[in-house]
């Protein structure tokens, strides 16, 4: 296995002034070609810190990828630090200057003295053209380790990686063939899922690895095969896939890049069914899960955001006596909400949510995270009580996941 370390340089990252999205993208792309990222690091714009992280990375990685610090201003010191690390010096690279001049000319500008410095590279660097900006990429080989330096601007970095560096990395390291297959599950936690498939996981061939990728409310299982032949790998991974699927079938909602709301929408559309929502604690988030999917107008008709009791009564038609006797967070209330919204919108299903999302509003009988959900059809209304706890955003998100999954499992 080829090991990689990704280093981001810049005080602005450490201070939280910008979000580092580069390392996530780079590590995902490296994973696709069979290179394992073993460490991600961020350092400020100081020579001492950069040199230290270079020394450390060289001891644990075969490939060190660096982004940031390549601008024309004095605070961008990455190239000078590379010179000190390798014992080299900066010189104008002829091809870099030609490309830089063409870049500015295309935009009706002349290369200034400050920008001309962008064409200066360490003498031991292999020049990598950046067609999307002025800071070139650089490739170094030193004591068995490859170092790559790129600008930190995400679209420039992605352009360099995609057009030039990923093919060059694959050629240099003779990377193995890699194949992924992903199973998407919902309604079961990571630890319980691991217990269910423990024996199957232990019996996996050594060249096929399993990764658990949990997120809020769901868990992805990723099978990854490594080898020399893609067709053989696909067959072997598929064989293992078919072994595990029957064990966890009740929790599987999709594969690959499937999202729960997309799967539910696809099933509604295939069956010619429609849905509407009456939301309280989710505050429009459930409706958003439907409408963020392209083509959702075929099955999502609309809804009412009944956050207050007045709206529940006046617009949604919930009985005042129901609210007075049982409260807004109750099975009785969500039954009326779901049944009334279904009738108002003339849909196959009416979905309702009401609960205490937090952080305040809980009582001993109904603590924060107490949620009632309901789904009404023409012939039946089903309900479920959730005890979530946690944070407000988490409770809202998990409520939406639970009701989408209840709809999928019960009627779709």
TrEMBL record:
Pfam families associated with the record: CinA, CinA_KH, MoCF_biosynth
InterPro entries: CinA, CinA-like_C, CinA_C, CinA_KH, Competence-induced_CinA, MoaB/Mog-like_dom_sf, MoaB/Mog_dom
CDD domains from the UniProt entry: cinA
Gene3D superfamilies: 3.30.70.2860, CinA-like, MoaB/Mog-like domain
TM region positions: none
Domain MoaB/Mog: 5-172
Entry's family note: Belongs to the CinA family.
Cited NCBIfam families: cinA_nterm, molyb_syn, PncC_domain, PRK00549.1
Protein name: CinA-like protein
Lineage: Bacteria, Pseudomonadati, Bacteroidota, Cytophagia, Cytophagales
